[in-house]
Amino acid sequence: MADTHVPPRARDLPPLLWADVEAADVVIHAGDWVDVRLLDALESRAKRVIGVYGNNDGPALRARLPEIARVELEGLRLAVIHETGQAKGREARCAALFPDADVLVFGHSHIPWDTTADGGLRLLNPGSPTDRRRQPRHTHMRAEITDGRLTAVELVGSQQAAPGADPHTHPG
């Protein structure tokens, strides 16, 4: 997940996302949490959280989270960052910045993204579960790793907003 913006855009995450958090072996958050209480809640309900801070995250979150996270999950080399710059040239730029990663999870745009750069780096943006902006639905992703490879990625979305979400579209 990314760009949850709790509480300005919603009081909480959607129930479907909380169910996915509790079922997952690892939860990844690519920044723009906004309130440290969401990090606390995720850490209390998830088996493992990997997260980074975003441009809307203040000192309390920046004190607990890195700008870039790099981990290995079952042999898959994963990097997480909030911002990757403009869409044009993203694959080549990120492949150059993350040569030792197999998958890069990012946020910021609130626009779901799933592409593969020359050289094999997979770039994933789960969108936003609380602030869909110009997208047709609120989204997050589910993924599976098998034998050190990303074997399944599913964009999960809902027309229904998170509890307390602003029902209006937020151009950005």
TrEMBL record:
Has UniProt tagged this entry with the keyword Nuclease?
no
Keyword Metal-binding present in the record's keywords: the answer is yes
EC code: 3.1.4.-
Quote the SUPFAM superfamilies the UniProt record gives.
Metallo-dependent phosphatases
- Enumerate the GO terms in the molecular function aspect: hydrolase activity; metal ion binding
Check the record and name the InterPro entries matching this protein. Calcineurin-like_PHP_lpxH, Metallo-depent_PP-like, Phosphodiesterase_MJ0936/Vps29
Query: PANTHER family given for it?
Result: VACUOLAR SORTING PROTEIN VPS29
Family of this protein: Belongs to the metallophosphoesterase superfamily. YfcE family.
Write down what this protein is called: Phosphoesterase
Native organism is Virgisporangium aliadipatigenens
